[in-house]
Amino acid sequence: MKEVLAEILECKNRLSAVIMAHSYQPQEIQDLADTVGDSLELSRFARDARAPLVIFCGVRFMAETAKILSPETTVRLVAPGADCSLAACMNGADARLWKSEHPGAVLVTYVNSEADVKAESWACCTSANAVAVVNAAPSPKVLFGPDRNLAEYAAENSRKQVIPWPGGCHAHSGADIRDLRRARAAWPDAAVLVHPETPPVFRREADRVLGTGGMISFVSQSSLGRFIIGTEEGMLNRLTSLFPDREFVSAGGITCPDMRKATPEMVLMALKSHDTGVHVHPGLVAPAREALERMAAL
Protein backbone atom coordinates (compact mmCIF):
# COMPACT_ATOMS: atom_id res chain seq x y z
CA MET A 1 0.00 0.00 0.00
CA LYS A 2 2.89 2.40 0.69
CA GLU A 3 4.03 1.99 -2.90
CA VAL A 4 0.52 2.81 -4.20
CA LEU A 5 0.28 5.93 -2.02
CA ALA A 6 3.73 7.07 -3.10
CA GLU A 7 2.80 6.64 -6.76
CA ILE A 8 -0.47 8.52 -6.22
CA LEU A 9 1.46 11.45 -4.75
CA GLU A 10 3.96 11.44 -7.62
CA CYS A 11 1.26 11.34 -10.30
CA LYS A 12 -0.85 13.97 -8.57
CA ASN A 13 2.04 16.40 -8.31
CA ARG A 14 3.23 15.78 -11.85
CA LEU A 15 -0.25 16.32 -13.29
CA SER A 16 -1.19 19.21 -10.96
CA ALA A 17 -4.25 17.15 -10.07
CA VAL A 18 -6.58 17.53 -7.10
CA ILE A 19 -8.12 14.54 -5.32
CA MET A 20 -11.54 15.12 -3.75
CA ALA A 21 -13.46 12.78 -1.47
CA HIS A 22 -17.00 12.93 -0.17
CA SER A 23 -17.53 12.69 3.59
CA TYR A 24 -19.16 9.27 3.15
CA GLN A 25 -16.06 7.73 1.55
CA PRO A 26 -13.95 5.06 3.32
CA GLN A 27 -11.28 6.30 5.71
CA GLU A 28 -8.39 5.28 3.44
CA ILE A 29 -9.84 7.44 0.67
CA GLN A 30 -10.48 10.42 2.93
CA ASP A 31 -6.89 10.16 4.19
CA LEU A 32 -5.33 10.52 0.73
CA ALA A 33 -7.66 13.27 -0.52
CA ASP A 34 -6.66 16.92 -0.81
CA THR A 35 -10.10 17.93 0.44
CA VAL A 36 -13.09 16.18 1.99
CA GLY A 37 -16.62 17.54 2.13
CA ASP A 38 -20.18 17.31 0.90
CA SER A 39 -21.04 17.34 -2.79
CA LEU A 40 -21.51 21.10 -3.03
CA GLU A 41 -18.36 21.93 -1.04
CA LEU A 42 -16.35 19.68 -3.33
CA SER A 43 -17.82 21.23 -6.47
CA ARG A 44 -17.03 24.72 -5.24
CA PHE A 45 -13.51 23.60 -4.39
CA ALA A 46 -13.12 22.24 -7.91
CA ARG A 47 -14.35 25.53 -9.36
CA ASP A 48 -12.04 27.67 -7.21
CA ALA A 49 -8.98 25.42 -7.40
CA ARG A 50 -8.83 25.75 -11.21
CA ALA A 51 -6.89 22.50 -11.42
CA PRO A 52 -6.50 20.90 -14.87
CA LEU A 53 -7.50 17.51 -13.45
CA VAL A 54 -9.90 16.57 -10.64
CA ILE A 55 -10.00 13.00 -9.34
CA PHE A 56 -13.43 12.65 -7.73
CA CYS A 57 -14.12 10.04 -5.05
CA GLY A 58 -17.89 9.94 -4.76
CA VAL A 59 -20.84 9.15 -7.00
CA ARG A 60 -21.60 10.25 -10.54
CA PHE A 61 -23.92 13.21 -9.94
CA MET A 62 -21.26 14.79 -7.73
CA ALA A 63 -18.62 14.53 -10.44
CA GLU A 64 -21.12 15.95 -12.95
CA THR A 65 -21.81 18.91 -10.65
CA ALA A 66 -18.09 19.59 -10.37
CA LYS A 67 -17.84 19.47 -14.18
CA ILE A 68 -20.77 21.90 -14.57
CA LEU A 69 -19.08 24.41 -12.26
CA SER A 70 -15.64 23.81 -13.80
CA PRO A 71 -16.31 23.09 -17.50
CA GLU A 72 -12.67 23.50 -18.55
CA THR A 73 -11.45 20.95 -15.98
CA THR A 74 -11.12 17.23 -16.65
CA VAL A 75 -13.12 15.48 -13.93
CA ARG A 76 -12.60 11.73 -13.54
CA LEU A 77 -14.86 9.66 -11.33
CA VAL A 78 -12.70 7.14 -9.47
CA ALA A 79 -15.36 4.42 -9.44
CA PRO A 80 -17.20 4.79 -12.79
CA GLY A 81 -19.98 2.47 -11.64
CA ALA A 82 -20.71 4.53 -8.51
CA ASP A 83 -24.22 5.84 -9.03
CA CYS A 84 -26.80 7.37 -6.70
CA SER A 85 -30.18 5.72 -6.14
CA LEU A 86 -31.67 9.10 -5.23
CA ALA A 87 -30.45 10.88 -8.36
CA ALA A 88 -31.74 7.97 -10.45
CA CYS A 89 -35.30 8.56 -9.18
CA MET A 90 -35.90 11.44 -11.58
CA ASN A 91 -34.73 12.51 -15.04
CA GLY A 92 -35.14 15.55 -17.23
CA ALA A 93 -38.20 14.15 -19.02
CA ASP A 94 -39.84 13.49 -15.65
CA ALA A 95 -39.13 17.07 -14.61
CA ARG A 96 -40.58 18.57 -17.80
CA LEU A 97 -43.77 16.51 -17.54
CA TRP A 98 -44.16 17.32 -13.84
CA LYS A 99 -43.83 21.04 -14.53
CA SER A 100 -46.40 20.83 -17.31
CA GLU A 101 -48.85 19.24 -14.87
CA HIS A 102 -48.44 22.12 -12.40
CA PRO A 103 -48.47 25.40 -14.36
CA GLY A 104 -47.26 28.32 -12.30
CA ALA A 105 -45.22 26.16 -9.93
CA VAL A 106 -41.43 26.33 -9.82
CA LEU A 107 -39.09 23.37 -9.53
CA VAL A 108 -36.53 23.25 -6.74
CA THR A 109 -34.13 20.35 -7.06
CA TYR A 110 -31.91 18.81 -4.43
CA VAL A 111 -28.30 18.96 -5.55
CA ASN A 112 -28.34 15.13 -5.38
CA SER A 113 -29.80 14.97 -8.89
CA GLU A 114 -28.86 14.40 -12.51
CA ALA A 115 -27.60 17.25 -14.69
CA ASP A 116 -30.70 17.20 -16.92
CA VAL A 117 -32.93 17.69 -13.87
CA LYS A 118 -30.81 20.58 -12.61
CA ALA A 119 -31.17 22.16 -16.04
CA GLU A 120 -34.98 22.09 -15.69
CA SER A 121 -34.90 23.70 -12.25
CA TRP A 122 -35.45 27.24 -11.03
CA ALA A 123 -32.84 26.51 -8.36
CA CYS A 124 -31.00 23.68 -6.72
CA CYS A 125 -30.62 23.36 -2.97
CA THR A 126 -28.61 21.51 -0.37
CA SER A 127 -29.98 19.85 2.74
CA ALA A 128 -28.75 22.91 4.65
CA ASN A 129 -30.52 25.59 2.60
CA ALA A 130 -33.55 23.71 1.26
CA VAL A 131 -35.95 25.75 3.41
CA ALA A 132 -34.37 29.07 2.41
CA VAL A 133 -34.50 28.19 -1.30
CA VAL A 134 -38.13 27.07 -1.10
CA ASN A 135 -39.10 30.26 0.74
CA ALA A 136 -37.32 32.36 -1.91
CA ALA A 137 -39.08 30.65 -4.83
CA PRO A 138 -41.11 33.12 -6.94
CA SER A 139 -44.33 31.12 -6.58
CA PRO A 140 -46.53 29.97 -3.69
CA LYS A 141 -46.34 26.45 -5.16
CA VAL A 142 -43.01 24.59 -5.28
CA LEU A 143 -42.27 21.25 -6.89
CA PHE A 144 -39.47 19.60 -4.92
CA GLY A 145 -37.50 16.57 -6.05
CA PRO A 146 -36.14 14.04 -6.14
CA ASP A 147 -36.07 13.36 -2.37
CA ARG A 148 -39.47 13.07 -0.69
CA ASN A 149 -38.12 13.15 2.87
CA LEU A 150 -36.20 16.37 2.29
CA ALA A 151 -39.25 17.85 0.53
CA GLU A 152 -41.43 17.08 3.53
CA TYR A 153 -38.84 18.57 5.88
CA ALA A 154 -38.79 21.74 3.77
CA ALA A 155 -42.60 21.84 3.75
CA GLU A 156 -42.74 21.56 7.54
CA ASN A 157 -40.52 24.61 7.86
CA SER A 158 -41.73 26.70 4.92
CA ARG A 159 -44.50 29.13 4.08
CA LYS A 160 -44.99 27.55 0.65
CA GLN A 161 -47.06 24.70 -0.70
CA VAL A 162 -44.45 22.03 -1.41
CA ILE A 163 -45.31 19.13 -3.72
CA PRO A 164 -42.79 16.27 -3.30
CA TRP A 165 -41.47 13.93 -5.95
CA PRO A 166 -41.85 10.33 -4.67
CA GLY A 167 -38.13 9.48 -4.63
CA GLY A 168 -35.55 8.75 -1.99
CA CYS A 169 -32.07 7.57 -1.12
CA HIS A 170 -32.33 3.81 -0.65
CA ALA A 171 -29.87 3.96 2.26
CA HIS A 172 -31.45 6.84 4.19
CA SER A 173 -35.05 5.91 3.37
CA GLY A 174 -34.47 2.39 4.65
CA ALA A 175 -33.01 3.51 7.98
CA ASP A 176 -34.19 1.48 10.97
CA ILE A 177 -35.56 3.60 13.83
CA ARG A 178 -35.05 0.71 16.24
CA ASP A 179 -31.31 1.07 15.74
CA LEU A 180 -31.50 4.75 16.69
CA ARG A 181 -33.54 3.95 19.79
CA ARG A 182 -31.04 1.30 20.89
CA ALA A 183 -28.20 3.79 20.48
CA ARG A 184 -30.07 6.42 22.49
CA ALA A 185 -30.79 3.93 25.28
CA ALA A 186 -27.07 3.05 25.43
CA TRP A 187 -25.96 6.72 25.27
CA PRO A 188 -28.67 8.79 26.97
CA ASP A 189 -26.24 11.71 27.33
CA ALA A 190 -25.57 11.93 23.57
CA ALA A 191 -26.98 14.39 21.05
CA VAL A 192 -28.87 12.76 18.18
CA LEU A 193 -28.09 14.34 14.80
CA VAL A 194 -29.94 13.03 11.75
CA HIS A 195 -29.89 13.89 8.07
CA PRO A 196 -33.13 15.25 6.52
CA GLU A 197 -33.04 12.42 3.96
CA THR A 198 -34.01 10.06 6.80
CA PRO A 199 -37.69 9.14 7.35
CA PRO A 200 -39.95 11.51 9.35
CA VAL A 201 -39.79 9.34 12.48
CA PHE A 202 -36.02 9.98 12.65
CA ARG A 203 -36.56 13.73 12.45
CA ARG A 204 -39.15 13.62 15.22
CA GLU A 205 -36.81 11.79 17.58
CA ALA A 206 -33.65 13.78 16.80
CA ASP A 207 -32.14 16.67 18.70
CA ARG A 208 -31.12 18.30 15.41
CA VAL A 209 -31.86 17.68 11.73
CA LEU A 210 -28.72 18.62 9.81
CA GLY A 211 -26.76 18.01 6.62
CA THR A 212 -23.22 16.73 6.91
CA GLY A 213 -21.74 20.23 7.08
CA GLY A 214 -24.24 21.17 9.76
CA MET A 215 -23.29 18.12 11.79
CA ILE A 216 -19.65 19.18 11.73
CA SER A 217 -20.56 22.72 12.82
CA PHE A 218 -22.82 21.45 15.59
CA VAL A 219 -20.16 19.16 17.06
CA SER A 220 -17.52 21.90 16.86
CA GLN A 221 -19.70 24.23 18.92
CA SER A 222 -21.07 21.64 21.36
CA SER A 223 -19.75 20.89 24.84
CA LEU A 224 -21.07 17.33 24.64
CA GLY A 225 -18.74 14.38 24.29
CA ARG A 226 -21.03 11.87 22.57
CA PHE A 227 -23.08 12.01 19.39
CA ILE A 228 -25.44 9.59 17.65
CA ILE A 229 -25.26 10.14 13.90
CA GLY A 230 -28.16 9.28 11.61
CA THR A 231 -26.62 9.38 8.15
CA GLU A 232 -24.36 7.25 5.96
CA GLU A 233 -21.89 5.49 8.24
CA GLY A 234 -18.87 6.87 6.40
CA MET A 235 -19.62 10.20 8.08
CA LEU A 236 -18.23 8.74 11.29
CA ASN A 237 -14.79 8.61 9.65
CA ARG A 238 -14.97 12.33 8.93
CA LEU A 239 -16.22 13.27 12.39
CA THR A 240 -13.70 11.07 14.20
CA SER A 241 -10.85 12.59 12.17
CA LEU A 242 -11.98 16.13 12.96
CA PHE A 243 -12.88 15.52 16.61
CA PRO A 244 -10.71 12.72 18.02
CA ASP A 245 -11.65 13.72 21.58
CA ARG A 246 -15.37 12.98 21.01
CA GLU A 247 -17.29 9.72 20.64
CA PHE A 248 -19.59 8.91 17.73
CA VAL A 249 -21.88 6.03 16.88
CA SER A 250 -23.99 5.55 13.77
CA ALA A 251 -27.70 4.87 13.97
CA GLY A 252 -30.15 3.46 11.47
CA GLY A 253 -27.84 1.07 9.65
CA ILE A 254 -27.42 3.61 6.83
CA THR A 255 -24.85 2.33 4.33
CA CYS A 256 -24.42 3.12 0.62
CA PRO A 257 -22.53 0.45 -1.37
CA ASP A 258 -21.73 2.96 -4.13
CA MET A 259 -19.90 5.18 -1.65
CA ARG A 260 -17.65 2.25 -0.78
CA LYS A 261 -16.50 1.34 -4.27
CA ALA A 262 -13.42 3.59 -4.44
CA THR A 263 -10.03 2.19 -3.45
CA PRO A 264 -6.53 3.72 -3.48
CA GLU A 265 -5.67 1.49 -6.44
CA MET A 266 -8.62 2.94 -8.35
CA VAL A 267 -7.45 6.47 -7.51
CA LEU A 268 -4.09 5.60 -9.04
CA MET A 269 -5.78 4.14 -12.13
CA ALA A 270 -7.80 7.34 -12.55
CA LEU A 271 -4.65 9.44 -12.34
CA LYS A 272 -2.92 7.29 -14.96
CA SER A 273 -5.92 7.11 -17.27
CA HIS A 274 -6.12 9.00 -20.56
CA ASP A 275 -9.90 9.13 -20.29
CA THR A 276 -11.44 12.53 -20.97
CA GLY A 277 -13.53 12.20 -17.83
CA VAL A 278 -17.13 12.97 -16.97
CA HIS A 279 -19.11 14.47 -19.83
CA VAL A 280 -22.11 16.78 -19.44
CA HIS A 281 -24.08 17.63 -22.57
CA PRO A 282 -23.14 21.20 -23.59
CA GLY A 283 -26.81 22.19 -23.79
CA LEU A 284 -27.28 21.34 -20.10
CA VAL A 285 -24.27 23.16 -18.68
CA ALA A 286 -25.56 26.75 -18.71
CA PRO A 287 -29.07 26.14 -17.27
CA ALA A 288 -27.76 23.66 -14.70
CA ARG A 289 -25.05 26.10 -13.66
CA GLU A 290 -27.65 28.86 -13.32
CA ALA A 291 -29.69 26.70 -10.94
CA LEU A 292 -26.57 25.90 -8.91
CA GLU A 293 -25.47 29.54 -8.78
CA ARG A 294 -28.94 30.63 -7.64
CA MET A 295 -28.68 28.07 -4.84
CA ALA A 296 -25.34 29.54 -3.82
CA ALA A 297 -26.75 33.06 -3.88
CA LEU A 298 -29.58 32.05 -1.55
Q: What would you note in describing this structure?
A:
The protein is an alpha/beta fold and 298 residues long. It has three domains: 2-83 and 260-279, Rossmann fold (3-Layer(aba) Sandwich); 87-167, Rossmann fold; 171-255, Rossmann fold, CATH 3.40.50.10800. 45% of the residues lie in helices and 17% in strands. It has 15 helices and twelve strands. The chain has helices spanning 2-15, 27-32, 39-49, 60-69, 92-101, 115-118, 130-136, 148-156, 170-173, 177-186, 200-205, 212-221, 235-242, 264-272, 282-297; strands at residues 17-22, 35-37, 53-57, 74-77, 106-110, 123-125, 141-145, 161-164, 191-194, 208-209, 226-230, 247-250. Strands 2-1-3-4 form a four-stranded parallel sheet, with helices on both faces. Strands 6-5-7-8 form a four-stranded parallel sheet, sandwiched between helices. Helix 1 (2-15) packs parallel to helix 14 and helix 3 (39-49) packs parallel to helix 4. The longest helix has 16 residues, at 282-297. The protein starts with a helix and ends with a helix.
